[in-house]
Specification:
Strand content: over 45%
Structural class: mainly beta
Largest sheet: 6 strands, mixed
Oligomer: single chain
CATH topology of the largest domain: Immunoglobulin-like
CATH class of the largest domain: Mainly Beta
Distance between the termini: 63 Å
CATH architecture of the largest domain: Sandwich
Number of helices: 1
Shape: elongated
Radius of gyration: 25 Å
Helix content: under 10%
């Protein structure tokens, strides 16, 4: 190779290298691209997006709500995510993943993105998901798993209403603006105890702080039977609101740790 050809070759190499930016982190559930979020036209409930940040956690859905599992993926490397454990079909879909390129990266060989599986909650129950990142020769690189708890919905004023019970305390509850919710807690007025809302200062949800009491079915003449206290709220603006409830029987009649329930509700 003569001197001129060497110079031309080296110049080409330097120009090619100068166009290779430092790779940026692949988006996970914490910085999911907006294209993965639940604000498609006509969606009544925000889709819940889970990823590595929700590994080993429980996630709450309501029947009819969409779940999107979003995990970092780079097609040019010999590793792929595989579903290896699915129990109790309370969700449908997710047979194949959709690849979403990282919008912050210029498309080129080696750039990453997100593999997305879309499911829909079809009945109440609990479903376990386990994903493994394996090489083409089956070498295990990483494991991610989720526990999905699906609850049923009801109707209120002709509109779909999401039912929130004690089983969802401490779990992720995601709604869209305009969604109606019904919070139900078991109670028994015959004991002198009832639920009180301790904190509902935010303006994300609007509704009455006074509960409606419904007796459980019981035989005629039966005494001491329990019931349910119910509160109705509507999501009116984006944000996060924490609802705290205390089962209280008056001065000196605290119900202990079991008498405290907290729901964290995010509206998008």
């Amino acid at each position: 190779m003569n001197r001129f050809n060497v110079i031309v070759f080296l110049t080409f190499v330097l120009l090619a290298l100068s166009g290779c930016d430092e790779p940026k982190p692949v988006p996970t559930s914490g910085d999911t691209p907006r294209s993965l979020m639940g604000d498609r036209p006509g969606e009544k409930l925000a889709a819940v997006v889970v990823g590595e940040a929700q590994n080993a956690k429980e996630v709450a859905l309501t029947v009819g709500q969409e779940l999107r599992v979003a995990l970092p993926s780079t097609p040019s490397i010999p590793y792929r995510w595989v579903i290896v454990a699915v129990a109790d079909p309370v969700l449908q879909g997710g047979e194949k993943s959709e690849y979403v390129p990282d919008p912050t990266l210029t498309p080129r060989p080696g750039s990453g993105g997100t593999a997305v599986w879309t499911f829909k909650a079809v009945k109440a129950g609990t479903q376990m998901f386990k994903y493994e990142l394996r090489s083409f020769d089956k070498e295990l690189a990483k494991t991610v798993q989720f526990s999905i708890n699906v609850v049923g919905g009801g109707m209120a004023g002709g509109k779909e209403e999401i039912v929130i019970t004690r089983e969802l305390a401490g779990k992720e509850i995601v709604l869209t603006v305009g969604a109606a919710i019904k919070i139900e807690l078991k109670s028994n007025y015959t004991t002198g105890y009832s639920w009180k809302i301790e904190s509902a200062a935010d303006k994300v949800l609007q509704g009455s702080t006074q509960s409606e009491y419904i007796n459980d079915p019981h035989a005629p003449g039966m005494v001491g039977y329990g019931g349910r206290e119910i509160w109705h709220f509507k999501a009116v603006q984006p944000g996060t609101q924490t609802m705290q409830f205390h089962y209280f029987g008056g001065p000196g009649r605290d119900s202990g740790p079991d008498g405290h329930v907290q729901f964290k509700i995010t509206v998008k």
